[in-house]
Amino acid sequence: MLGHNACMNTLPAHWLTPKRLLQASVVVAIITITLKTLAWYVTGSVGLLSDAMESFVNLASAVFALVMVTIAQRPADEDHPYGHHKAEYFSSGFEGILIIGAALGIIWAAGHRLFDPQPLEQLGWGLALSVGSSALNGLLAWAMFRAAREHRSIALEADAKHLVTDVWTSAGVVVGLAAVALTGWLWLDALVGMAVALNILKEGFHLMKRSSQGLMDEALEPEVVAQITEVLAGFEHRTIRFDHITTRKAAQRRFVDLHMHMPASWTLGRAAALRTSVEQALMSAVPGLRATIQLLPSDVEAHFDDEKDLI
Q: Binning pLDDT at 50, 70 and 90, where does residue 214 land?
């Protein structure tokens, strides 16, 4: 593991960007489709068929994620003054839908084979091809998770989770085929395929839920809010206070809105200088944060959620 970490740390930074990794995901998906389809062809296993079907989903989702990440990186414009960062949530939701569709297809195929088991052939070759393709997916998923944390990319994280699901799918299929070879119970092949599909189904619903939360302006994580609170506490004084702190996130971008109260006797220049210091401190503590601070006199309170504002 240390060797792998050292290898990843020596890679150029531009090799681990979301776009580069998603391009790699497209290539790996094509390779795994070839290997797993060949594994199903030589064995006739419905478990390996389910594995190959999910690889087609991997390809479609990787292509869509690549398109959405490209859109998300576009700068703000007149029609999108806050940028295009939320495009990544469409990628995550789309991937969840594809995963659910693949799972239902696997259950349908396995259901027929459960009541009409078929003999399996050349299991050795089939297992070898499946394990080889899973190793590629596992290595790529590990690199994606690492980059997703660094870039705060939900599209990259979703694709990595999908690849991990694919690895577990292959592991389940391998175990099932090994059990068939040891026991001679052909129906185990279909049963494993259905069990794998249920696991995939769960992951698909999870991705769709997370995507919907992002599109509805979900608040920042508690640990990030704690960082913001800590920074503001460093500026608080008997004449300076902060309130109405509201946070939200849009893929890689984070936002915080708040009010800063100070003496009414201060000049505008002095108040603006302090606000700039607070903004810089917040952005240094929380990467990707955009702070909007409204200046108010100490004796003025802002009121929200009045009935007239809710109409």
A: low
Query: Which amino acid does the sequence have at 117?
Result: P
Token pair, residue 250, equals 């849009």
Nearest in space to 155 (alpha carbons), one of 79, 225, 63, 220: 63
> What are the two backbone dihedrals, phi and then psi, of residue 265, each rounded to the nearest 5 degrees?
-80, -10
Name residue 299's amino acid: D
Between strands 241-250 and 289-297, the pairing is unpaired
CA distance 238 to 241: 8
Burial, 31: exposed, middle or buried (Cβ in 10 Å; 0-12, 13-18, 19+)? Answer: middle
Contact predicate 213/248, CB 8 Å: no
Q: For residue 135, what are the contacts with CB-CB under 8 A and spacing of at least 6?
A: none
Provide the edge-to-edge strand list for the sheet that holds 253-262.
Answer: 241-250, 253-262, 289-297
* pTM for this entry: 0.53
Question: With 0-12 CB in 10 A as exposed, 13-18 as middle and 19+ as buried, what is 132?
Answer: middle
Q: Which amino acid, 13?
A: A
Contacts for 146-151: CB closer than 8 Å, 24+ residues apart: 146/8, 146/16, 147/16, 147/17, 147/18, 147/21, 148/18, 150/16, 151/17, 151/18, 151/252
The letter for the amino acid at 10 is T
Q: How confident is the model at residue 275 (pLDDT cuts 50, 70, 90)?
A: very high
H/E element, 15: none
Q: Give the pLDDT confidence score for residue 27 in this predicted structure.
A: 86
Q: Phi and psi dihedrals of 245, rounded to 5?
A: -85, 120
| Domains of the chain in sequence order | 2-215 (1.20.1510.10), 222-310 (3.30.70.1350)
